[in-house]
Amino acid sequence: MSTLKAWLVRLRGPVLTVLAMAIAIVIGAFAFTDYPQQLGLVAASVDESDPHAGHDHGPGEHDNHDEDDHAGHDHEGHDAGQSIELSQQARANLRLKTEAVTVGPYTSYVEVPGMVTRWPGETHVSITSPLTGVINAINISRGEMIKSGEPLFTLRLTHQDLVNTQEDFLSQLGQLDVEEREIQRLTSASRSGAIAGKTRITREYERDKLQAKVRAAKQSMLLHGLSEDQIASIERTRTLVREVVVTAPLIHEDDSLHHDALEEAANRVAGNPAARLAAMQPPPMSLPSHNHIDAEFLVTELNVRRGESVNAGQQMAQLSNYSRLLIEGQAYQRDASLLRKAADSGAELQATMTGAGDEVETITGLNVVYIGNEVGTESRSLPFYVGLTNEIERSEQRGDKRYVSWRYKPGQRLTVRLPQSQVDDAIVVPKDAVAEEGPERFLFVENGDHFDRVPVEVIASDSVNVAIKNDGQVWPGQTIAVSGAHQLQMAMKNQAGGAIDPHAGHNH
C-alpha cells in the first residue's frame, strides 16, 4: 500500500503537464477557426460575378486599376440610400420618360366636366331633293369624304311645273328670235321710207315684253333647282333638261369671316359692353358678298335608294363638317366668376382627355365662344361653349373614295380647365414625376445610369401638373424622370429592404 502511494506521487507531475498541453491545443484550435482564409488554411468561396471577390486589397491598391468593371460610370455624388440604378430593360419596362428641368410660370386651374358637341347650324348639312323626280344614280357612300361641288345624286325630273316652265321658256325664246328678225327687217325697210317708223317701234315693244318673260322664266327655273349653267345650256341647245345633278354645297366665306371677326372684336373690347356692341356691328362693304370656299364633308347619312321616287324638299343625305366643333362645359355656381373672367379677358382655357393606356391628352389654346343663359334644373350647372379646331387622325383610300376619322368626335367626354391663379417662378413638372412618402415629396434626377432621389417642396398642384419651389434642390438643365416616380419609389424601398407600402409614391 505504501508502495502504490509512492508511485502515484511520482506520476502526478507528468500527468498534470500532459493535461495542460491538451487543454492548450484545444483552445488554440477554437481560436484559429475564425481566420482560416487569412491563414490560407481553407480555400475561399469566390463569387464569379465579382472579379474582386475573395481578394483582400490594401488601401489604394486599385486606385489606378485600368480594368476595373466600374470604370467609366458616373457615380459622383451618389448616396446608396437615395439612389437607384436602372438597366435599359428596366427603363423600357417602366416606359420611363425623361425631360430637362425648366423654370417658368405655373397656372392653376379649376376643372369642370365637359363634352365635345357639334356646332349648331354648321356641322350638319341636309341635302334635299330640289325637284320631284326619280333617283337615277347615287355617287356617294356612307362614311366617305367629299369636297364641295362633287356630284352626289343624279335625279331624273318628273316635276310637271318645271317641265311646263322649260316649255314656256323655249317658246318665248322662239318668239323672241322671231321679233328680233322682224325688227331687223323693219329697220332696213324704214331707212328706204317704205315702212313707217311707228311699226318698228311697236315690234320693239313686243320684243321687250318677251325679254321680260324670258327673264322671269329663268328665275323660275332657278327656284326649281336648275343651275345657271343648265339654263344657259337650254338657251343654247334649245332642248329640255331631263336630269338634274345634285352637288355638295359650298361654304359662304363671308359668313365664317364675319363670325371670326365678331369673336375677335368681342375679345378686344372685353369688359366694355358699349364698345363690344359697337364692334359687333359689321363695317359697311368690309366683306365681299357671294364669296364661296371649298369645304370637305363626311357623308353621315344616306336616306334614299337608287330608283326611288322623291318629292321636292325630301332629305336624301346628310353631310357633316367636323373641322370645327364645340366643347360644352358645365360650370357650377362657385365657378361662375372664373368663367366670366375668362370670357371677358379672352384667357386661354385647357381641356384634358384620357386616351389609350390612361395617357392624359391636354388640349391648349381654347377660348370661350359664349355662355348659356339657363341653369340646368337637374344638374344646377351653367353651360358654356368653347371652340375646338378638329383634325383628321386617320385617312384611308379605297379606289376613288376616301374614308377618314376625325380626332375629336361629338359625344366624347373631357374635362375643361378654367384658369384660376398663377405662380411666376416655379419648376413645373407632370404629376407622375413626383413621388410621395408621408409629408415628403421627391423628384428623381438622372445621374449616369442611376436616378438620385431629391426632396422638393410642392407649392401648388392640380390633376395634370405640379409646381415645385425653385430653391436650388433641382436646377434648370438637369434631367429628371417625368413618369414612373411611384414605381421608382417602391423599387428604392424594396432595395433598402423595408416593407413596401402599396400606396407609397401615389399622388391622390
From TrEMBL:
Organism for this UniProt entry: Rhodopirellula sallentina SM41
Residues covered by region (Disordered): 48-80
InterPro entries per UniProt: MFP_Cation_Efflux
Compositional bias of kind Basic and acidic residues: 49-79
Domain of life assignment: Bacteria
GO cellular component labels: cell envelope
GO biological process terms, semicolon-separated: copper ion export; plasma membrane copper ion transport
Sorted UniProt keywords: Transport
Entry-linked PANTHER family: CATION EFFLUX SYSTEM PROTEIN CUSB, SLR6042 PROTEIN
Protein name: MchE protein
Protein's UniProt keywords contain Ligase: no
